[in-house]
Amino acid sequence: MKVVCGIKVGNMKERDEAKRGKVGIVDFPVKSIGPEDVKIKVAYCSICGSDPHIVGGAFGLTPPFGLGHEMSGVILELGERAGIRGLKVGDRVSGNFLHYCGTCYHCVTGNQQYCEHAGNEPCMAEYVVWHESQVVKLPDNVGLLTGCLTEPLSIGVRVMDKANMKIGSRVLVSGGGPIGLIICQLFKKYGATALTLSEPNEERCRIAKGFGVDYTINPLQENLFDRGMSITQGLGYDVIVEVSGVPSAAEAVIKLAAKCSTVLYTAMFPNNYHLPLNLYEYCYSREVTITGTYCSHYNFERTVSMLPEMDFGMFTGPDQIFDIDDCEAAFTAHLSGRYPKVIIRCNRFDGE
Domain residues for 137? Predict the structure, then answer.
């Protein structure tokens, strides 16, 4: 089967990740199906912001290595003991790309994202074989194209679970990429006030305003602190989520934290970045909760129930969809920043 892979990692001292690695198609055998497994014919797999970093050698994988984890597809086959949750051949599905062992310390204490034996199978491929626990059926009114955005939405659900959000909370989102646009929508639905997006891209600010963001700030042209304090009448924000991954933004947004607020760092920052932090100011005089997110664990059933409630039109335009054989062009389009999301079509289905 065809799998989109990182096929080359060049000089790791090269500053430009695009020059360290490239993508291409590699032929791999389809994984054998086990008794509790589900074989899925992949429809779509969207490109995550982390995928080019992986191609550029961020995780030190030996090429060729498969890519992709934001997928949708149709069940082709069930193992002899699979289907306990009602899954059947022909179901349109998505799910969690991570398979948890269910028995290690972290799994049995409810922190499956740190499973000591977690595994994953690349989803930018014609087929995947997942354990049935990873698979969720899409709602009847959700198509396969929207369904591939289940995993990004699950990150948004995870953010909401950790944000200590209350109706009427003042909220700042830093970064208008796919996750930023998703969580802006979720915060608006949850009753955020003074909902503010810090983002230099005018088009993404326009999109955010379209589904209810109250204020946008261009941090390259405006003083983020001064504007944010003006918006919040000098109180700061009750919830701040940093999803740009820009180190300067990490330091800038925390200065806007209100007393007893929550600051979530959700983006992937450089491994060697250290956040300057005055513990007296933030942890004593303001009682700020500073935390983060690492993947999503068992929230996918809730996530798919939210898919019909979301506006994903900005992610699924026809110019943003590339066939699997055009994966190199797809990654080039993603890196151009022209589109909020780029999606790879791994197989075609009638009516989709």
Answer: 2-149+312-345
| pTM attached to this predicted model | 0.94
Query: Which residue, among 53, 44, 316, 304, has the nearest Cα to 156 in the 3D structure?
Result: 304
Question: Between the CA atoms of 92, 342, 53 and 17, what dihedral angle is there, to the nearest 10 degrees?
Answer: 150
Two tokens, residue 82: 């699979």
Phi and psi at residue 215, to the nearest 5°: -140, 145
Closest CA to 245 of 222, 268, 211: 268
**Of the candidates 119, 41, 108, 106, the residue with the CA atom closest to the CA atom of residue 77:** 41
The CATH number assigned to the domain holding 165 equals 3.40.50.720
Kindly report whether the peptide bond that precedes residue 64 is cis, defined as omega within 30 degrees of 0.
Answer: yes
3-state secondary structure 247-269: HHHHHHHHCCEEEEEEEEECCCC
pLDDT tens digits along 68-121: 999 999 999 999 999 888 999 999 999 999 999 999 999 999 999 999 999 999
Same domain, residue pair 10 and 141? yes
Structure tokens of 240? 């701040």
Report the domain count for the chain.
2
State pLDDT tens for residues 223-259: 999 999 999 999 999 999 999 999 999 999 999 999 9
Question: pLDDT tens across 281-340, in order?
Answer: 999 999 999 999 998 888 999 999 999 999 999 999 999 999 999 999 999 999 998 999
